[in-house]
Structure formats: C-alpha cells, structure tokens
Amino acid sequence: EFNDQKFVYDFTEGNKDLKDLLGGKGANLAEMTNLGLPVPPGFTITTEACKVYLESGAEPAALRDEVSAHLDALERTMGKKLGQADDPLLVSVRSGAKFSMPGMMDTVLNIGLSDASVEGLATQADNARFAWDSYRRLIQMFGKTVLDVDGELFEDALDEAKAAKGAASDTDLDAADLKRLVERFKGIVKTATGRDFPQDAREQMDLAIEAVFNSWNTDRAKLYRRQERIPHDLGTAVNVCSMVFGNLGPDSGTGVAFTRDPASGHQGVYGDYLTNAQGEDVVAGIRNTVPLAELESIDKKSYDQLMQIMETLETHYKDLCDIEFTIERGQLWMLQTRVGKRTAGAAFRIATQLVDQGLIDEAEALQRVNGAQLAQLMFPKFDDNAKVEQVGRGIAASPGAAVGKAVFDSYTAVKWSRSGEKVILIRRETNPDDLDGMIAAEGILTSRGGKTSHAAVVARGMGKTCVCGAEELEVDTKRRRMTTAAGVVVEEGDVVSIDGSTGKVYLGEVPVVPSPVVEYFEGRTHAGADDADELVQAVHRIMAYADRVRRLRVRANADNAEDAARARRFGAQGVGLCRTEHMFLGERRQYVERLILADTDEEREASLKALLPLQKGDFVELFEAMDGLPVTVRLLDPPLHEFLPDITELSVRVALAEARKEPHENELRLLQAVHRLHEQNPMLGLRGVRLGLVIPGLFTMQVRAIAEAAAERIDAKGDPRAEIMIPLVGTVQELELVREEAEAVIAEVVARTGVDLKLALGTMIELPRAAVTAGQIAEAAEFFSFGTNDLTQTVWGFSRDDVEASFFTAYLEKGIFGVSPFETIDKDGVGALVRQAVESGRATRPDIKLGVCGEHGGDPESVHFFHEVGLDYVSCSPFRIPVARLEAGRAAA
Length: 893
Ligand code: ADP
Ligand code: MG
Ligand code: MG
Known about the structure:
With about 900 residues, the chain is of the alpha/beta class. It is built from 36 helices and 31 strands. The longest helix has 25 residues, at about 600-625. The protein is elongated, with a radius of gyration of 33 Å. It starts with 7 loop residues before the first strand and ends with a helix. It catalyses: pyruvate + phosphate + ATP = phosphoenolpyruvate + AMP + diphosphate + H(+). Keywords: ATP-binding, Kinase, Magnesium, Metal-binding, Nucleotide-binding, Pyruvate, Transferase.
C-alpha cells in the first residue's frame, strides 16, 4: 500500500516488488529480512524522497523527523546509539536505484566513527587495530564520495604507510600505523576542503544521504543511463544499514557468490571469499581472494549456512541470484542479493534447467531469454581455445568477430578492400566522412565514444562489428598507428581482431568459429543427439516453446531460391517480401536500358519479351523452394534511373567519344534518358506503382512471369502460393488500375495453360496517405504488408540513407529518441498509423491478411508491437527469423 507521505521504510516493511520505491537493493534487503535470513537491521529512504530533493533542491520537510524516528528504532534494536562514544552503533549509507548502475554511486561504510567513538569501538571489540582500520576507511570513503576529495591522495598515503613499514598488504599495518594514517587522512581532508572531518555522527549520516541523492545526477551516471536507456527521473533510494564487520580478524571476512555459474548456468559453488576484510576489498583486488569452496575449511558452520541460504534464495526468486555476505566472528550476515546477470548462453541454459527443476513453467522460461541474446548466440565468434594476445578493451557496440589489417583512414580502407584485403578501420572517433570506410571494413574500432557514438550507431545499423571507446588505445591517425597501454605499436597493415560482443581487441588473427546455434538452425547438428551441446538443446527447447504459443507467423525477406531455402531451414513460414529489382541487375540491365530507350511499342515489347523468361525462371525456383508456403512478390519498386549508368561516367564517355570523333549515338541517347529520369528526391519520385502506371507493359510482364511460373509449378505437381504485391500505393485508384490489368493477364494465362490459378493481389502500406485511407484501399487489396522502412521515412520526413550518418547520433545523445526509429518502430507516430490502418482495413475486409516486411519485422521490441496490434505475420531477413519466432512467442506467452 503506497503512502506518498511516507519516505522511510524499515527493512521489515518492504518487499522485492517495491523496486520502484525502494530501489533494487532496498527491496531485496527487505525481502531477505522477511524470509528470516540474517540481514543487519536498517531502513530505506525512498526514491520519492530523492525525487523531491532533486526537483526542489531540498529534502522533503518531513524527511528529517522520519529518519530520526527510524534511527531511534534501530538504536533500540541494536542497544546502542549512532556514534555513541563508549559503544558506537555504526551504519553504512548505501545507494540503490531501481536498475543496478554498477560503479555509478558509492557507498560509505562505518558512519558513526569519530575521534571519541573509535576508542569505544576498540574497547568493545577488544581490537584496536580493527577500530582504527574502520576509521581510516570511513575518512577515505567519506572524503572521496561525500566531500569530493581526490581519492588518489588517500591511496597514495596508504601506499606510503605500507612502504614505510615494508608491509605487503594493508593487514600488515598495526593499530599504531593505522592511527597515524587516520591523522594523515584527516589532514588531507582539511587541506582539500578547508574544514575538519565532521565528528558528529548524525551530521556524517545526513551528509552521506545527501551525497547519494546528488550522485544520481553526476555526468557519469547520466551518461550510463543514456547508454542503457534508463529513464532520468527515477531517482535513487538510500539504504541505512547497521554495520557488521568482516575485518575483525581471521575468523571474519567478506565475500560474493552466485547461486549458479553465470557463464554456464551450472549449479555449484561459485564465488570469492576474503578473510579479514571489509566491503569492496573482495572485488577491488587489494588482496588475493580464495574460491568460495575454500570457505568450507575456513568456517564450516558459516559455509553450510550460506549454502542453505543460497538454496532458499534460488527457490524463492526462482532464478540465479548473486549475493554479498560478511562473516563477523563466525556469524554470517547477508548484505545484498539480486537476480544475477548472466551471459546469453547461460540465460538459455538456466531457463531450461529451471523448468526441469520444476521452478518455472515454459511461459516463464520464455520471459527469461530474449531475441537480443539469441542474436548474440548466432554471430560467429572467436575460437575459445585460440591463443590470443589481448591489447585493449572497449565498449561492445555492435556484435560479431572481425579480423583484418589495421587501417587508419577511410580512403585506405576503401582502397585496400577493393583489392581484396580485409581491413579493420581504426579511428579515434568516426564522423559522416568515414561512411565509405566503414562500409568497406570488416569491423570498426574507435578509442573514443560510447554506445551512442557515431561509430556505434552506424555500425549497428549496418550490422557491422564495432568496438568503440577503447580508451587505453592511443590512435594516431596522422602517423597511421595505434599504441596500446603496454606500449605495443600497431602499424597500418598489422592484423588485428576485434570482438564486438565483448569489446575485446586482440593483436594478430584470432581464428573464428561458426556459431553452434546457427549450425543447429542450418540442420548441420541436431538437438536430441547424445552428444549435442547443452546450449543447442536449450535453444531447441526454448524455440519449441515459442513456436507452440506464438500467434504471429514469421516469413522471410528473400529474393532468390537460395535465401528462401535457408530461411525455410530457419523456420520461415513463407516469403513476405521478394524484391524483384535484384532480378534486373547484371547482364539483364541491358534489357532495362533498351526498355527505357525504346522509341516504338515494338522495341519496348521486344525488351519486355526478353526479360519475361528470365523473370519467370527466377520465380519458378523461388516457388519451388517455398513450395506449399506463401510467397509475396513485390513488383518493381525503385526508380528506373537506378538501372542506368552513372551520370558523370556517362558524360565523360560521351565527351571522349565526341573528341575522338567516334560514333556515340547510343551513349548520347542514354545520357539524355539519364537526364530525363534524373530526380532531386528519387525516394519520393517516379517509383513503385507510379512506374508501373507510366511505363507500359512493365508490371504486366512481371505479373505474367509470376502467373506462368505458378502454372508451371502446378503442372509439375507443386503447390505455389504466390501473392502479388504493389508497392508505394497512395490511393485506391492506383491499385484498381493495376488490378484490372493484372487480372486480365492472369485470366489470359489461365485460358492458355488450362491451370486454375489463385493469385492474391495486395499492396504495401508505406505512405501516410495509404495508412489513412486503408479502409478504401482494402476494397482492392486482399492483403496489406506494412513497409515500415518507407513509412518511417515518409512519416518523419527522414531520408534513411542520409540521416543515420548525419544527425542521428546528436539526436540520440540529446535524448530526442532513445533508439533509431529505423531500428525499433516509433510506436506513437508510425505505429499509430499502422494501428489505424489495421482497424480500417479489417473493417472493410474482415479476412484481409496483414503483415509487415520492413526491417522492424526482425526487431524484438517491434515484434511485440506487431503482435499487440494484431498483424498476422512479420517478415524479416533470414538470419533474423529465429529472433522473430522467439519474440513472437514471448509476446504471446
Ligand atoms: P554496491 O552497490 O557498490 O555493491 P553496496 O552498498 O552493496 O554497494 O556496498 C559496498 C560494499 O560494502 C559491499 O561489499 C557491501 O557488502 C559492503 N557493505 C555495505 N553495507 C554494509 C554493512 N552494513 N556492513 C558491512 N558491509 C557492508
Ligand atoms: Mg553491493
Ligand atoms: Mg518501400
């Protein structure tokens, strides 16, 4: 029950479902408390309090009293007062947002220690070394996090103290050394801030709470949220937790653990433990930790208890959990738990393991994995067994494994790749001028910029491997070389390997192995065989769950029989988009040229006649590959000039011929045609249905090829299910004209062949006008296929080919959109039109078939949207089909 007047919750009051209000850490501390696990008592200040503070610049008026009341209660429970001189209660002040933001906001331990209470702590614990160690930690953490003192000043002083003593580790410093160090630390605070380290315990606590609030808006935190698409207005909670001490001696310590291996998913004992240590020591790598399994011989009782708690947590959360714990003089304390991060492969394995254990059902298993993880498992990867020389690490910006020769500018990238070399383009950062180079390269590596940098955005758009922001690599484009942190110099032409899934950069050629998951989809390995890899088994089972529950069918965008066959192996239930323009390239271009140049009907018909059998041949193969499944063939879409020679090249040819007085009549006519067909904005020009209506015979030739191919397949006892799709329709009149012509042609083929053909005729919905008038268009269309690429272009007025490289990074950085609308469908704008067209299309023709064939058909978030608006199918490139199947299943489960 949410109470907007209540800003503080005791650990006994919350639960794991209150992450919005209590943050992840606070909600889970409360959950563990209520499970009866040993959690040091404490309370949580809500994210609401943080929001008020951030908005108004001051803590809510009621907060101070509420904190006092909870602190009083805590003091009563613990039987001591915060900072009390003879026996101080100490607390930690810990940040904790809804989503974990690793390393973003710091925690202060040992609050309540002062010159007076440190003595009391020493007496109570009968351990002076421990008390002074805790005090120096407080000043160090508080100085750095709350007072903004440069942390290195403390670290240097600690190092000096160790050096003076000849001590290898901080545990070798004794009470006297640490007492001196405390004086040093206090001096550092005084010099840096101009004031003394605060001696009042409550003041320490209040300052720390405020610092946690403020840390929500540091530059680092903001950048992280932008990159991870975490909303900026969530705020953080603050946890005040009574201290327990792992630094009390050899019978104490602190550790981290996973309830199962986050890399493989296997059950077992995974974690690290450090004796006589506090807080972050384990992860900071200050001293060598021991594997968790060794705790059994160090402290059997605590170990057994921990194993039991881990089992309780797994059963309770029904998932892999990670935990932080501390042992104080043989007493185990739980300090944190959460559902743990895992690798993509482990996510699949764990989901099926949990099903087998009876902890979750199949529908839940589908929610435990996602399409992005599946896509990651489908990329080829570097051979795990290869010997590698890692020279750097950046942000994993766009997955894949790429190997090539280092080049430091786009010109060289293009030149070398033209001569058959594989190259990796290495830049400090990229800009629109690098586009050619990025296209030519196998992969892109930059030393600056994050997940929304130009390199990252453009590479993801192209599906190209990219590692960005590898900061320890010094890129010198002028001298065409890169220097690693270890001083290794990589010259132009040296081979490097980059892993876009991990961000790792290697020197030399690392061998690449195909993904076992793709091998499985291709049918080269089979799940179910005894030796089949566990991962493949898990993927196989999850895909079966998804296929069982999904409502959306999944088709492929495939232009030829080969792609169609692969798509079918990957689970495609038809072709949603066959682009016929690819069939006009190569040697067939000459016929298109002649078609355009034709002066007479005879000439025109001659070239169409030459094209007809070629087209028909393509379709026969395609229908055969997709026998029994629908194949949507789109009639010619792009502007004709795309089939003509480049204007500059042609002008040069004409000029040369003229100068040499050679015959050049054909070139000249071609040049005139190129000029005539030249358009300022070809995307909005003579293309799609417009072309079909003004170039006589073009669409009819294509329809004839489709009809004859289908008739031939039926003759051969096949089962072709061709659907004819008209692109770029804006009004029903266009469609009616094409339909009339098409029906006449089909009737003619039926009459001539005697084969009963059923060819569906429909249209793309890819213009705003078509979406708005979909009710009318449905009169003439048996199906709609939403062309969301063009629809996004025309709704936003963006030219996709231009804007992604020019201003999208700026837009992403400014937060105008969280992701490119070409990557994930813009639900509010483009999506609203789709929704409207679905409704009005169905109103006119209840059995109308509805699908989508833009890139969005393979994007996880978009697939969920298409499920929700009630489409019948999505169509995407062959490699995205498993992803679409999985996401369609997740949407329906
Ligand atoms: P993070 O979010 O970075 O993990 P935490 O708030 O969990 O930060 O705390 C940092 C470290 O301090 C962790 O190792 C945690 O276990 C330890 N710690 C936090 N609060 C206490 C406490 N009350 N007693 C002992 N150790 C604590
Ligand atoms: Mg923690
Ligand atoms: Mg289109």
